[in-house]
Amino acid sequence: MRGHLNLIILATLIASLAACNSKPTVTQEQSKAESLLNAASELTAMSRPDSALTLLDSVLNLNGIDDTVHAMAVGEKANNMLILGRMADALPLCRQAISEGERIGNDEVLINQYSTCGIVYRRLGLADSAMWAYQHGIEVSKRVGLKDYVANLYNNIAVMFVETDRLKEGISYAEEATRWATEAKDTVELFSALATKASALLKQKDYKGARHTIVPHFDEILSTGSTPLALKTASPMLQSCIKLGLIDEADSYLRKLQPVMQKVEPASNGSLGILEIEAALMHAQHNYKGELALWNRIETLCKTNQGVPQQRIMWSKAECMRLTGNTNEALRYMREAYNIADSTKNSNVNRQLSEFSVRYNTQQKELQIVKLNQEKATERARLMTVVLVLAVTSMLLAFGIVLILYKRRIANQRYELNLRRKYIEGLESERARLARELHDGVCNDLLGLQILMTTSDKEQTIPILKDIMIGVRQISHDLMPPRFAHADIAKVAADYVTHYPLANCKINFQATDTDRWQHIDQAKAFEIYRIVQELMGNIAKHANAHIINVSMTYEKWGQIVLEVENDGAQPQLKDSPNGIGLYTTTDRVLGMNGEIKRSETNGMYKVEIKLNS
Q1: 8 A C-beta contact, residue 314 and residue 337
Q2: Residue 313 near residue 335 (C-beta atoms within 8 A)
Q3: Among candidates 128, 122, 176, 126, which has minimal Cα distance to 152?
Q4: Does the pLDDT of residue 355 top 70, yes or no?
């Protein structure tokens, strides 16, 4: 196979040199581009994406090639980026190929790229966008009567549902793909759909069903010569054999798969998946040293393609160390796995924490049994047991502290996410309010000004123009987010409140004189600023206020108290929770784990908000 690859590259170089020795024409460039594109497609089929990308870049750098070849080359490049796991690079190429395919009306390009685009969206976690791409691909495929492509796209939808654990739907779409592949007499798509169905059955723990789905066809699958198909079907079959305890059978199939493994890039996703299964087989055979060596190899390969999460590698190595009696190394790998999970904000961290806890509890019980056995031996053996127990207890204590700190960090992260969500909701409400301000205020004033300018003296329009300018300035002030780089929240709020354009109203602002305001993080300061805006806006709209008092206090124990009161009648400050302004304000306060109270004393209506700094 390597010799075949060298022949392809050599033929490509000869074609390039021949082209350099003659004056290029459109025909020569076109012929050269088609040859390079065909060679790249062969390399892709041989799971050699890096080599294929080199040829595809050569095609795209040629001048005088037609739009069809160019669109196919862009699409083929997107496919190879997908194989390499470079989703961020693959997505814009998919979109470009779809755009070119639509422009030239090439259904083949469209179908291929809708499929690739769907896979990229799926791996990026954008399920809705993936379904959009798949459905468009199915529509085009059915329209032109390409049943094999319909089968392929239904199978991709099935894969998406299986990956999101919607297994019944995944099996249903896999069976639909099987039906279309059978009608098309396309064995590759048929076996691919069977592999998807087997993966779903494996997740349902129907190991017999998963194994039976692939085993009768596996020799025929190998005979197709399709490396990706062989790897895709082998994975659920081998895992099912291991789960069923059919170790010898799994070992036999792995040996059959070795010629296929020699054809693929060692760091490709398919190769890494089979290596993981081989590690699981060694684990079942109690060959922990061999398994550890294999995990070290996988870790090295993942430096170029992170096909296996680093956390899983560390945990597996820790398990090997634990089972070989190397407790200190096991704990070190466990800690490293936790650090990786924390830095990447792994969404499965709660499940993994539970698994780690179970493992540690099991380890502790085993150590206690060893201690009891050692107590029946000599005094020296009892002393060694006590030392061992103390050492393990210290490690567990350290682990407990790390776990507590980790959970606290997770809670802070959730809190920050909640703040961002509240900010977005407040932003939408703010946009709606500003739209009403523009429509009901500035637009109507401008209409009146237009009428007045056509019927009256221009001098009479000056006061109206000033009012409109004040209104627009206030709206722009509301739109502009505060800048906390050069001023703290107390100074920003003071500037906003004291310049609030409310006629016939005395506005007072007071804040505790402390330098601690500048230590409040910008996200919380922004929320406090928006709360002040909402409360001032509510008073301006609903109250006939002559006095407004705003105060901000930073208590010694770290609590922030914001009070806004006025002497006007404001129904929203009584018992009605339906006011949009106060609803948004309450949402912001609760989003920061704060408290909000409304009261009326001696004709003054007050809102009091307490927040933890």
Answers
A1: yes
A2: no
A3: 176
A4: no
Secondary structure of residue 596 in the 3-state scheme? strand
CA atoms within 13 A on the CB side of 527: 30
Residue in the block written with tokens 């002030």 = 477
User: Class of the 483-613 domain?
Assistant: alpha beta
CA dist 521 → 350, 480, 491, 590, 610 (Å): 28, 19, 15, 17, 16
Q: How far apart are CA 325 and CA 438, in angstroms?
A: 73
10 Å Cβ neighbour count for 393? 12
Q: Is 286 left (phi over 0), alpha (psi -120 to 50) or beta?
A: left
Across 3-7, 252-256, 427-431, which has the greatest mean pLDDT? 252-256
Rounded to an integer, what distance in angstroms lies between the CA atom of residue 239 and that of residue 243? 6
What are the structure tokens assigned to 134, written together?
């798949």
| 547-554 and 595-601 beta bridge pairing | unpaired
Query: What is the end-to-end Cα distance of the chain in Å, rounded?
Result: 66
pTM: 0.44
- Laid out side by side, the sheet with 595-601 consists of 506-511, 547-554, 559-566, 604-612, 595-601
The three-state DSSP-derived secondary structure of 560-608 is: EEEEEEECCCCHHHCCCCCCHHHHHHHHHHHHCCCEEEEEEECCEEEEE
Q: Which two tokens stand for residue 342?
A: 């924390």
Helix (H, G, I), strand (E, B) or coil at 206: coil
3-state secondary structure of 149: helix
- Residue 609's DSSP bridge partners are 562, 596
* 3-class DSSP assignment, residue 85: coil
Measuring CA to CA, which residue among 49, 81, 370 is closest to residue 227?
Answer: 49
Residue of higher predicted confidence among 399 and 583: 399
Range 93-115 burial, b when 16+ CB lie within 10 A, else e: bbebbbebbeeeebebbbbbbbb
Sequence spans of domains, the chain: 322-448, 483-613
Give the list of residues 6+ apart from residue 185 with CB closer than 8 angstroms, or none. Answer: none
The DSSP string of 8-30 is HHHHHHHHHHHHHTS---HHHHH
CA 286, 287, 288, 292: dihedral to nearest 10 degrees? -150
Q: 428 vs 105, which has greater pLDDT?
A: 105
- Using CA atoms, how far apart are residues 105 and 102, in angstroms rounded to an integer? 5
The number of angstroms, rounded, from the C-alpha of 154 to the middle of its chain's C-alpha atoms is 24
> Is residue 277 within 8 Å of residue 315, measured between CB atoms?
no
109 token code pair: 């390009």
